[in-house]
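hi! just following up on the protien thing from before. the input was this:
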Amino acid sequence: MSDRRVTRRNVLKGAAFVVGAPYVITSAALGNNEKAPASERVVLGHIGVGGRGTDLRNGFQSCKNAQSVAVADAYSDRRDAAAKLIEGKAYGDFRELLDRKDIDAVVIATPDHWHVPIAIAAARAGKDAYVEKPLGLTIAQDLACRKAFTEKKRVFQYGTQQRSSGHCRLGCELVRSGRIGKVDTIEVIAPDGGEGGSTEEIPVPPALDYPMWIGPAPMAAYTQDRCVTPGTYYIYDYSIGYLGGWGAHPLDIMVWGSDADIAGPMTVEGTGKIPTQGLYNTVIHWRVNIQMAGGVKMTFKHGSDSTKFIGPDGWVRIWRGGIDAEPKSLLESKIGPNDVHLMESPRQDQNFIDAVKARGKTVSPIGDAVRSDIISQLSDIAIRLQRKLTWDPLKEVIVNDPEASGMLSRRMRAPWTL
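and the predicted 3d structure came back as:
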């Protein structure tokens, strides 16, 4: 938790301020056999409480040693309803939530373009952060986020929940332990995006603080599909589409099972369609070919959802719902004491709470989040420019294309900065 001096009196006074209740010592504050005393809990604020944010809030409320006390959202009806459910306080501006000294950590589940700016602000405010995927809108944002959490020594958890699935861990341990030999091919598949979306301007809903929702993105006319799913995933001002929005899951498993992406310079080239009709304009129908150091070839394409590692002695394929391998005997083998053992995490949210309390590592740390996001970002740039890029993972730069290098960052609308 934060470095401030924590006492039972200070915690209870803070809780009374949050809910507007009299200063009393309740049985909930004192704790019981299932719930830790207030002074030992990780105090949470939730930033973004739409569909995914609601799911996360519900999950964290069931975590041991966690207590949600505040929410922030650009929609007044959402934040008021969420605050009522947790008996906490609602904020229209996330910065006011971050100013609270009693909050240890935040859960960020905003539209994609807000993930990194808010995460960096949280780190600078002394908060740990659980951040939904994908990570940044650009590679420059990814690197700035990693820098902030590293320098401020804050705990980071990436919301790629598959690392908390036992079969995903087993598959990656089999690969890293050499059961299929040296990996020579990696195949990553993620669901496709979509076209359409209304471009007709309509009045902004009364419950929405539209300038706050837009934040660092370019100001644009409000339409019925702009600020709702799937528009938030399919509009390039706010996202790179499912290349990152869904690709984050199988790409994260690729990173967990292999270090091919950081072994040396790699080339990235691909094809895809960028819709020209309607509101949605992120890449769809993509196929990306990546030549990694050491002769490893990787393909990243639209389709189902899986990560497949192929070596001279067999293959392992992992997806959210299961695992397959050849030979089948791999699935019955045990990970022994001399094999690679990855962190075990039965729940992504509880893993974060435990790491905050212990000031330790999470199962999905910032370094791995940056690595997988870089793959999706480079794929997007290569498709948009229709040419091959060369990426140096040591220097973290595109070495062969000044125009592509210029796409590693985007201008942010004033007054927002990283």
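Residues 1-33 have pLDDT under 50 and may be disordered.
The chain has two domains: 8-162, 165-343+366-406.
cheers
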